[in-house]
Amino acid sequence: MEEHGGSAPHYLGHRERLRERFRKGGADALAEYELLELVLFRAMPRRDLKPLAKSLIARFGSFAGAVSARPERLREIESLGEAAIIELKIVEAAARRLAKSSIENRPSLSSFSAVVDYCRTAMAFLDHEEFRVLFLDKKNHLIADEVQGVGTIDHAPVYPREIMRRALELSASAVILVHNHPSGDPQPSTDDIHLTHQIIAVGKPLKVLVHDHLIIGKNGHVSLKGLRMI
Fold first, then answer.
1. HEC profile of 52-97
2. CATH fold of 105-223, please?
3. Global confidence as pTM
4. Where are the alpha helices (DSSP H) in 124-214?
5. Separation in Å, CA 47 to CA 20, 76, 134
6. Which residues pair with 142 in a beta bridge?
7. Separation of alpha carbons 48 and 226, rounded Å
8. In the chain, where the domains are located
9. What's the pLDDT tens digit per position in 53-97?
């Protein structure tokens, strides 16, 4: 692959320098847009990707925001093809898989920081609200992690009886409730607190405990148990 006159395109040297910095120093040695360039190289080998990577960071706010963006939003960017979108989604899926592996086969309450890390990886940068439930057995090991509601930027439909019905189907003894605030602010609303108490009330006669309700934002998380609201 050569330009006219036999000289290699300038971006080839840039790519090799990025790879070498990554080899020596890992992700911390690169800016977010440079790490994004590395991801895109495989799908778009014949282009200077620095402008595209910078525009993705500007549009979605961060590397994590770009990787987590929905495919339909990524398709709005004219210069980003399907192969590149797939590369971004592979990175997102790998991050989720790695984070989830840290809480599987371990008591979730004793690895609480890993639970939070997993939930942040899965939900912090979504542009819509999502409500998921971690179903736990008697030893607080994870049985299942399921999304129970997907909604708009500020609401996801949640039905307490459906959550408890699913808990009984899975023979779960306890649940951890998790949802995100796409606004970025994880502070609980009055509705969040009321819904939590509803789910607790439905679960009590069924002997299904609600260990916590985590609210995930871009800049942190809140535990309703930690706030002594449950």
1. HHHHHHHHHCCHHHHHHCCHHHHCCCCCCCHHHHHHHHHHHHHHHH
2. Cytidine Deaminase; domain 2 (3.40.140)
3. 0.75
4. 160-169, 190-203
5. 19, 19, 43
6. 136
7. 48
8. 10-97, 105-223
9. 999 999 999 999 999 899 999 999 988 999 999 999 999 999 988
